[in-house]
Amino acid sequence: MSGNKMKAVGLTKYLPINDPDSLLDVEIEKPTPTGQDLLVRVHAISVNPVDVKVRGPKNRTESKPRVLGWDVAGVVEQTGPDCTLFKPGDEVYYAGSITRPGGNSEFHLVDERIVGLKPSTLDFAQAAALPLTSITAWEGLFHRLGLSSVEDANSGKTILIIGAAGGVGSIATQLAKYAGLTVIGTASRPESAAWAKELGADHILNHYEEFVPQLKALGFANVDYIFCLNSTEKHWKNMADAIAPQGKICSIVETDERLDLTMLKDKSVTFVWELMFTRPMFGTADMIEQHKLLNELAGLVDRGIIRTTVAEKLTPIDAANLRKAHAMLETGRSVGKVVLQDFE
């Protein structure tokens, strides 16, 4: 391959994942870093629901291959002229930006302000499972809901995590437990309930049943915080009933239906969205918070407090394995993350 070309997995048409043209092995130009960008040699990637959603069938075509992928672990190859946080050779992990080409390529450009130093105790595959879900969980808990990220600082407070066994839930459960909260997770299958308990959930509710009777059976009248990681509109009434007066609800799941905010008025409840792409998408003044939280998370990982959530590793990074990973996610029944490592 010529010096200015690189391998990637991309798409030109938005097709069902069982179509071999839904994701393709391609060769594209190797980019050059400018400004505060790092050029990262990609060692491992993981797949998230956002990949599946962006790739899903739609009546559109791309004139040149579109590269997806918003979880990367790799090594800094080159730094832009304005970089101050990293140097070539640094091992890093990050999620990137939804408005730029993704990381399913041999080399990838990313703004250094949303990159962290890889946890030293993890290999690249284990680290690649963490960024997107961890940024979402961290921002949701500590930036949107306003909880303290200090160990045991929120003792005596309760949080209901809807979808505790999913990608974000697996990290949020661990972080909330570390931060001192009583964690009540929801799950609907024995294996997902067991996974959430293993990660630190104190209690499990079934999210197909009303929350309040289940909470009362556990000795709770309500909960101080709710982190909704699954079907906002489906759980809206349950959340309005279960939240404590002056409590806070954060959701990461957009809805096609109108939500009745008036249901939260009598209790003076705060409702807030979390999207981990907001900071890079809008180039906010506090973008560097993602760099800081990823470094802080790496410290917690290296201390054995937060564990990675890899469920399956596929090698190499190519279109066939990415199609397989997308198909696994589309079942909606995967527990833990699917990671791909190494280009051939």
From TrEMBL:
Entry keyword Membrane: no
Residue ranges the record marks as coiled coil: none
Matching Pfam families: ADH_N, ADH_zinc_N
Assembly and oligomerization: Homotetramer.
Gene3D superfamilies reported for this sequence: Medium-chain alcohol dehydrogenases, catalytic domain, NAD(P)-binding Rossmann-like Domain
Family: Belongs to the zinc-containing alcohol dehydrogenase family. Quinone oxidoreductase subfamily.
Protein name per Swiss-Prot or TrEMBL: Zinc-type alcohol dehydrogenase-like protein
InterPro entries: ADH-like_C (IPR013149), ADH-like_N (IPR013154), ADH_Zn_typ-1 (IPR014182), ER (IPR020843), GroES-like_sf (IPR011032), NAD(P)-bd_dom_sf (IPR036291), Quin_OxRdtase/zeta-crystal_CS (IPR002364), Zinc-ADH_QOR/CCCR (IPR051603)
Compartments, as annotated in UniProt: Cytoplasm
Highest taxon, organism lineage: Bacteria
Keywords: Acetylation, Cytoplasm, Metal-binding, NADP, Oxidoreductase, RNA-binding, Zinc
Keyword NADP: yes
Major location (coarse): cytoplasm
Domain Enoyl reductase (ER): 18-340
